[in-house]
Specification:
The chain is mainly alpha-helical. It is 58% helix and 4% strand. Helix 4 crosses helix 6, helix 7 runs antiparallel to helix 8 and helix 11 packs across helix 13.
Length: 334
């Protein structure tokens, strides 16, 4: 993992720490790159053959799962603390690999323990205990003998079994009154239409990248305001947080067909829920169930603001994919 990517992960993690008032903490595993990335036709994560008691996971997510004990130690800290914990996790991961392969050295072990003492302000006994815990953690989470060969994915042990329940739509009590678009909403719709034109014209990603990134934040802001205006004040952020990764899927990656927010075939919702979302975003398992209702609400928002004549077909497609997504989550996390 390069320095830039480590810094990106650290910054995103630090940002999530600043949102302590929210009920969830989301981590984007890999943001949109500076060019389109072709998604292969391989099976989704739940179908990669993980043994009983394990689940499939991408390499970037694997590192983040492995690093959890270190991240918990610096929770509430600044960027430098997060970067230090990330770097320590990488060092420990690599040394654990050496241990598994029988290439460990006493000198390297001592150097790592010293670095842990300095980086986490621990005494020698505590630092050595943490060192041992992290070395053992890798082989426990990722037993070498079951890992798929030549694959960018790993099989991780399910440390905790979660109960996955479908989203309770009875908790949504939104006003049915149409909220007409204001000037900012109209400007947002204009920018979405501009982005759609780039997609349909096959424009190089670099030419619309800045528009895309600014539009993601603008969409989230206007959508959250709409939710609040509809009466959903307390949990509006839980739903608006879901937009970034979905917009990445629509506008930041290549698909077999040219798609835009207004034209998403049902098959792409299956791909998004069973694979893209699970690969790109780390959230608590029972928080993934927010994505289908969030997208349904988002399409209602787009309709009221004048982007769509009718959101009915797209909302129906999301609804059909939703039960399957719940089963995917249960396969992954229970």
């Amino acid at each position: 993992m390069g320095k830039k990517k480590k810094k990106d992960i650290a910054k995103r993690h630090a940002k999530s720490q600043q949102k302590t008032q929210k009920k969830r903490k989301l981590r984007l595993v890999k943001s949109s790159s500076n060019q389109h990335v072709q998604i292969s036709s391989r099976p989704g994560l739940p179908h990669l053959g993980a043994p009983e008691g394990f689940r499939s996971i991408g390499m970037a997510q694997a590192m983040m799962e492995y690093a959890k004990p270190l991240m918990e130690m610096v929770e509430g800290g600044g960027i430098e603390d997060i970067e230090g914990a990330t770097q320590a996790a990488m060092v420990l991961w690599n040394y654990a690999l050496c241990v598994e392969e029988g290439h460990e050295t006493r000198k390297t072990e001592k150097d790592i323990v010293k670095a842990i003492m300095a980086g986490f302000d621990l005494d020698k006994t505590s630092a050595r205990a943490l060192f041992t815990k992290m070395i053992e953690r890798r082989s426990y989470l990722f037993p070498p003998d079951i890992q798929p060969k030549g694959s960018p994915f790993m099989f991780i042990r399910k440390e905790v079994r979660h109960i996955i329940r479908p989203f309770d739509y009875d908790t949504l009590d939104l006003s049915d009154e149409i909220i007409p678009p204001d000037e900012k909403d109209k400007a947002l719709v204009g920018r979405i239409n501009e982005l759609d034109r780039h997609m349909k014209a096959g424009t190089d990603y670099e030419e619309y990248e800045s528009l895309f990134f600014s539009l993601k934040d603008e969409c989230q802001s206007r959508f959250e305001k709409w939710l609040a205006d509809k009466g959903l004040t307390q949990d509006a952020g839980l739903f608006s947080d879901c937009l970034h990764i979905y917009l990445d899927f629509i506008y930041g990656y290549m698909h077999d067909d040219t798609i835009a927010l207004e034209s998403v075939a049902p098959v792409y919702f299956v791909e998004f829920f069973e694979d893209f979302l699970l690969r790109k975003m780390m959230a608590e398992p029972n928080e993934y169930v927010y994505w289908p209702p969030a997208l349904k609400l988002f399409y209602r928002f787009l309709h009221e603001k004048g982007y769509l004549e009718s959101p009915a077909k797209i909302i129906e497609a999301i609804g059909k994919a939703e039960p399957y997504f719940i089963e995917v989550l249960r396969k992954q996390f229970t």
